[in-house]
Amino acid sequence: MNLELKHFRIFATLARTLHFGQAAEKLNMAQPQLSRLTTFIEQEVGHPLLVRSTRKIALTPAGEVFLEQCLATIGQAEQALHLTRQTALGLSGNLSLAYMDFAISGPLPRILRAFKAKFENIDVKLSHMWSEQQRGALLDREIDVGFLIGPFDNPEISTIPVSRNRLMAVLPETHPLSNRAVIDLRSVANEPFVFGAMSKWRPFRDIVEKVCLRNGFLPKTIHEPFNSDAIFGFVAANLGITIYPERPHSMYPRGVIVKPIEGVEECIVTVAAWHKRNPSKILHNFTETVLQYAEP
After folding, report:
1. Membrane-spanning regions, if any (predicted)?
2. Inter-residue contact 11 to 20 (CB < 8 Å)
């Protein structure tokens, strides 16, 4: 078939006016040319689409169906152009984003809220991934952007620090040290600890263990749940204590007390990371939002 989109537009214009002279004027062409094109369209279809008389023209039943399909095809083509242009501008499409526990308690919700307010037609697909998983997914281009524990030093990856959270001691509210203003790590060296499982929390565990070793001990870890809720739940149940990045007080559950740690200056840095060769305009717009709302 040799029909093109322009032929659908021509027939739709003629079918809606049912007048060769008016249709030719709308199409900015001579009436004989319109007549020849209409004949060509009918020949390609293989059936008459118009009933012609000296006074007027009308659509045949086949012509009515063809008009309906012409309008649908024109609409689909216009929608395809619109979505393609919107995607090229970063105004429509998908963004795949991975996050870990510390990110969701930091600026990520605020960043997402601001981004969706400005780019409401972007579908943000969220996935929970541990930091090590995110590193691999970013390098393999399986996700567009990740929020993970930094640093992430790789020549193929760009990063923006989005939050810096000091390490805090989290104790059961009935703990003997709960009335202290600050906690000296050496005073809890023999305590049982609760940390996220090493298979998932290694980057964070490595930082904490270095801090503890500098204070003369290696934590005696007796429980290793997978997520933050379980960590805090075990502490609230008086099954141990933990060290965790500072977060808004309202995000800690009942039954725990949070205290600064004396002499510890290390912070957990959460970074937004993405592949440098990712050409997505949507990703560009998102990282611009990250820059605006990242914590200094």
Report:
1. none
2. no
Distance CA 246, CA 144 (A): 27
CATH number at residue 37: 1.10.10.10
289 shares a domain with 155: yes
User: pLDDT tens digits, residue range 190-202?
Assistant: 999 999 999 999 9
CATH number assigned to the domain comprising residue 239? 3.40.190.10
- Higher pLDDT pick, 143 / 19: 143
Contact between 129 and 99 (Cβ < 8 Å)? yes
Residues 6+ away with beta carbon under 8 Å from 187:
177
Query: Which structural domain range is residue 45 located in?
Result: 5-88
Which residue, 40, 63, 88, sits at the end of a domain?
Answer: 88
Kindly state whether residues 184 and 127 are assigned to the same domain.
no
What pTM was computed for the model? 0.74
Percent of the chain scoring above 90 in pLDDT: 78
pLDDT greater at residue 171 or residue 26: 171
The pLDDT value recorded for residue 1 is: 67
CA separation, residue 295 to residues 106, 161, 163, 173, 291 (Å): 9, 8, 5, 30, 9
